[in-house]
């Protein structure tokens, strides 16, 4: 059974080497040739995934004493495939950007102009955000000052009202005192 696993390993090595070579060539090609290469790599990645499944099944059939070694090799192969898929995805993204640029007629200088324009707009947006934040802070501070003024006015009004009440009481008491004094003088 380990001979089947090793045969799958040889196939795996051959196909992954081809995939690595093709992924490196994708950015250098254009047009239909590039499209065909992308499709071919996608197909080969599917074959590699199937090989991994076969290797996994074979590893389960291997006696327990040797299984750990085969499982660790299988794990490293899976990591290698994940890396290949990431590399392929990056090359496809670059491929997609190139196709988009070709269709839209964008060139490198236009892209740089767009980037510069975007940076300018970002800076303007940040300045506007800072101004808005400063304005909001001033509004909050103004509201706090206004609240303090209203509190002080309310306190002052209460003081004035208490003073007015004392003045009325004092006036009423003066009226009584003056009657008493007038009454005493008459006697």
TrEMBL record:
Gene3D superfamilies referenced in this protein's UniProt entry, alphabetically: 1.20.5.110, t-snare proteins (1.20.58.400)
Superkingdom to which the source organism belongs: Eukaryota
Gene Ontology molecular functions: SNAP receptor activity; SNARE binding
GO BP field: Golgi to vacuole transport; intra-Golgi vesicle-mediated transport; intracellular protein transport; macroautophagy; retrograde transport, endosome to Golgi; vesicle fusion with Golgi apparatus
Membrane topology: Single-pass type IV membrane protein
Any matching Pfam family: V-SNARE_C
Segments forming a coiled coil: 34-94
Alphabetically ordered keywords of this record: Coiled coil, Membrane, Protein transport, Transmembrane, Transmembrane helix, Transport
Compositional bias segments (type: Basic and acidic residues): 114-124
Cellular component annotations (GO), alphabetically ordered: cytosol; endoplasmic reticulum membrane; ER to Golgi transport vesicle membrane; Golgi apparatus; late endosome membrane; SNARE complex
Region (Disordered): 104-124
T-SNARE coiled-coil homology domain sequence ranges: 117-184
SUPFAM superfamilies tied to this protein: SNARE fusion complex, t-snare proteins
Annotated TM spans: none
First-listed, main subcellular location of the protein, grouped into a coarse class: membrane
Localization of this protein: Endomembrane system
Record-stated family: Belongs to the VTI1 family.
Protein's name according to its UniProt entry: Vesicle transport through interaction with t-SNAREs 1A
Gene name per UniProt: vti1a
């Amino acid at each position: 059974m380990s001979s089947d696993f090793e045969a799958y390993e040889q196939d795996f090595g051959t196909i992954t080497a081809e995939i690595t070579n093709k992924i490196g060539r994708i950015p250098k090609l254009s047009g239909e040739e590039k499209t065909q290469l992308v499709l071919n790599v996608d197909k080969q990645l599917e074959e590699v995934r199937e090989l991994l499944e076969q290797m996994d099944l074979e590893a389960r059939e291997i006696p327990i004493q040797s299984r750990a070694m085969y499982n660790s090799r299988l794990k490293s192969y899976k990591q290698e495939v994940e890396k290949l898929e990431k590399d392929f995805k990056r090359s496809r993204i670059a491929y997609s950007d190139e196709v988009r640029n070709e269709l839209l007629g964008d060139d490198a200088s236009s892209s740089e102009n767009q980037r510069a324009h975007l940076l300018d707009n970002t800076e303007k947006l940040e300045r506007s955000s800072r101004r808005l934040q400063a304005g909001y802070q001033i509004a909050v501070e103004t509201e706090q000052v206004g609240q303090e003024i209203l509190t002080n006015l309310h306190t002052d009004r209460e003081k004035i009202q208490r003073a007015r009440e004392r003045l009325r009481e004092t006036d009423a008491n003066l009226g009584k005192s003056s009657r008493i004094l007038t009454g005493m003088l008459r006697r």
